[in-house]
Amino acid sequence: MVCSILPPWITAHLSQDLSSLSLGALRSAQRKIIQAEALEDSDDDSDGGDSESPEAVSTKEKQPEKPEWDAHPKKPIAHRAHKHAPQEVTSKRPVGRARTVVESHSVQPRDPRFVALTGEFSPEKFTQNYAFLTDSHKTELSTLRENLKRARKLVINSPKHLRAEREGEVSRLEFAVKRAESEVNKDRRLKVERDALSKLKKEEKDKREQGKGSWYMKDAEKKKFMIKARYDALADSGGQRAVKKAIEKKQKKIAQKEKKSRPFSASQQSQDKGWGGRDSKRRRLA
């Protein structure tokens, strides 16, 4: 080293100056010294080896010289013995929190309506499993009718400060009764349609066993068949008078719907203009 050939007082002075330097400056100076020593060694080797060919010398000059010491030495990469061996991963990299440690092959919960394992929807089985709903709708309707009857009696004999509240209760019960009646009527209508379809399917099955070809009902034919079945059931329960009343009610409803969608006539427009002083709005045709 250079410090070994210097006098002691100079060496002590240099050591005192070096102690005041930072660690980074000392590290950079150490690197430069190591590089200088490496260059001197390479020059000595080149002087002693004159027997080498010029091609070998040119290849050595092209290759970059690596220092013997490095601040961040690279560790050799560990190669696997075969492709099925486990791969080594560095522990310095943080591992993600959301990861699959053990793969589970259990069936994930899904909506049974869209899973093929549950099978197809069967209206007959559904009706059998939920037949208690029809009885519950009838019980609810009877209970609501009794409550409505009792609430109307209370409104008649109620004082003035309670009349508004009890009238509101009556209107709420009336709406609930109408809703319950629609549920009961719907259950009755669906039962009639199911019975008619099951009877038709049974007859068609018997005809096929006797040699008749396959036949499938169209939507329009099915609609007419359902209407006929409903009116037949109505005639069995209430007679022809009930059927006539239901038909008149249906026709009245259709007439009112057509009347609302019809534009006003010219005479009616002039009357409205003369009475009100302004043109009345006409309803647009759909």
Structural write-up:
- There is one protein chain.
- The protein has helices spanning 8-19, 23-48, 54-62, 123-129, 132-156, 160-209, 219-238, 240-261, 266-276.
- With 286 residues, the protein is mainly α.
- Among the domains are: 2-49; 129-212.
- The radius of gyration is 50 Å and the shape is elongated.
Distance between the termini: 106 Å
* Mean pLDDT figure: 77
Instruction: Bin the strand percentage.
Output: under 5%
The helix/strand series, from N terminus to C terminus, equals HHHHHHHHH
Overall 3D form: elongated
The number of helical runs is 9
Q: How many β strands by DSSP?
A: 0
Poorly predicted parts: none
Largest sheet: none
Structural class: mainly alpha
Give the helix level as a range of percent: 55-70%
Radius of gyration, taken over Cα atoms and rounded to an integer in Å: 50 Å
